[in-house]
Amino acid sequence: MINKRTIYAYIIIIISLIIHSCVNNPPDIPPNKVVPSKQQIEYQKMELIGFVHFSINTFTDKEWGYGDESPDVFNPTALNTDQWAEVAKEAGMGQLILTAKHHDGFCLWPSKYTEHSVKNNPWKDGGRDVVGEFVNSCRKYGLKAGLYLSPWDRNHAEYGYQAYVTYYREQLRELLTQYVEISEIWFDGAKGGT
To answer: Is the distance from CB of 190 to CB of 151 less than 8 angstroms?
Structure first.
């Protein structure tokens, strides 16, 4: 049990700390000389960005595919990228990012560097370009468009070798040149293994 004398001592210590903190001025700390760029400020002003993780694994119920999925599995009969963009805009987002290729290597655009893409599935006879539709919808609703391109490709036999680096660069070049303006590219650190 705490006696009155101990309580008074605590009260005096607390009052002393409060008085001491009010009397002393804070140290003079020079301001940080790092100033954000105009682009960084504009990016922060967007406040909300959406990330659409849509791919062949939407139809296989896996987070990460193995790269051996048949392109026939991809069959988004009710795909409406305008709906995505409209909802994002209504929610106050300034940008959407789409997973153009995840670790399974399936490309949502008709990449000329792989057969593991939308160009080889029965959905609209392989004639749809999800990335193109997504980018057009973003523009239509006044959103910036970003893309995610996984560095790991479980479908590519030369992953981990120099030939894959060339292949990956070519796919990145496709995405950055075919769709006019892409505001952001996402990469991540996932790599080989199960």
So the answer is: yes
In a domain, 14, yes or no: no
- Per-residue model confidence as pLDDT tens digits over 43-79: 999 889 999 999 999 999 888 888 999 988 888 889 9
Q: Could you tell me the maximum CA-CA distance found in the chain, to the nearest angstrom?
A: 87
CA distance 159 to 76: 28
Report the C-alpha gap between 177 and 194 in whole angstroms.
33
pTM of the complete model:
0.79
Report the number of distinct structural domains present in the chain: 1
Angle between helix axes 81-90 and 130-140 (nearest 10 degrees) is 40
* Of 111, 125, 124, 183, nearest in space to 153 by CA: 111
Q: What is the mean pLDDT of the chain?
A: 87
CA-based nearest residue to 69, from 30, 103, 32:
103
Q: What is the number of other CB atoms lying within 10 angstroms of the CB of residue 145?
A: 22
Q: What CATH number has the domain bearing residue 158?
A: 3.20.20.80
Report which of 99, 97, 101, 108 is spatially closest to residue 132, judged by C-alpha positions. 108
Instruction: For 109-144, give one letter per residue: b (16+ CB within 10 A) or e.
Output: bbbebbebbbbbbebeeeebbbbebbbbbbeebebb
